[in-house]
């Protein structure tokens, strides 16, 4: 044990300083960020990084916004914490009313927690309680999709299909889960299959799965409206989600749409599902909800789900110590007011078209670029070793990570993905810049990304020679 002074401060022994913060990797130290403003991060080395992924699609209004900082400080001076079992705060009520003004799409109630994983866990528990209150306790099963990601708690990881993250936890998983094919045509569509035929095949598979496990045992189908980081910005084919909704209604199953990454304006509408002919029963949100200024996530719930609780126990049997935390709610409210006042969802949609044009014009001819896909300011580039056969790189190459690291060296942060195809094979990088990004900055992003891809194409070719 290190010696201490009387004031309990550890005494420096002359040995190398021990780092006590547990990082994600024990061998690679993350870059030290000393300040952040707008679309840029400044590292301890002095290098400025253009944040083309907004962290993880989080910093929707950019970094260092003083208006949000002022709202945080003002709330801290009023009420910094209360326990929601006994109390509420004006700011939490205002945030819920601001987002759900007029009960859009029949969404009646908001429930705020601290992370996306907590939000999905809350949605699953609410779905279970809904059926329990209605006298159907046998509904325990969740149907999810392959190449999905819904969180890092044991339950949310159980309904996810991010293979690498699940490896050490086999045996811990919630057992009543099964998976169907994702609506990922580039990899799961058949040769010559039309979009309509692909959609019809996926819906047949989903219904077959409901029937296989027993539709009266299924409590929910959960899906990302637009698949996020695991497969890389995969939007559903036309008619798919509407067909899913119809099947759920037919068998009394709740539809949970996970919009933690793709929602809150990221794909060009506030709710990503607004671009589909569908209304979910429960929606999850996070990331852009607080814009990175505080830890906050939430679920939005349709009235019919709340009615089941009203007619039964008259309570939601769930809660967290930091639920609806006043400072987090203040940060989120400030961010959401800025988004609405400055028409940033519309701007996201417009700048997304610019980003799409630049990506397609600058990268489509590169031999390792297989598919460019996305919506709004939510785009991915999937890499292949052979464009004709769509053969992936060997996972040991780590092509997507190599591209991400090369772009970072050149001053642009993108979000890498591996296991894109099936949890093992495939690589992509994801772009999700702040809604405030400029056309000039998008030009820089696409130029640097091309340079990074070309550099790694040459490097990998040299390795094989």
TrEMBL record:
What's the family? Belongs to the class-III pyridoxal-phosphate-dependent aminotransferase family.
Q: Which domain of life is it from?
A: Eukaryota
Specify one Pfam family: Aminotran_3
Q: What GO CC terms are in its UniProt record? A: cytosol
* Essential cofactor(s): pyridoxal 5'-phosphate
**Which Gene3D superfamilies does the annotation name?**
Aspartate Aminotransferase, domain 1, Type I PLP-dependent aspartate aminotransferase-like (Major domain)
Keyword Coiled coil assigned to the entry: answer is no
Query: What species does this protein belong to?
Result: Purpureocillium takamizusanense
Alphabetical keyword list = Pyridoxal phosphate
InterPro entries given for it? Answer: Aminotrans_3, Aminotrans_3_PPA_site, PyrdxlP-dep_Trfase, PyrdxlP-dep_Trfase_major, PyrdxlP-dep_Trfase_small
This chain belongs to which protein, by name? Aminotransferase
GO molecular function terms noted in the UniProt entry:
pyridoxal phosphate binding; transaminase activity
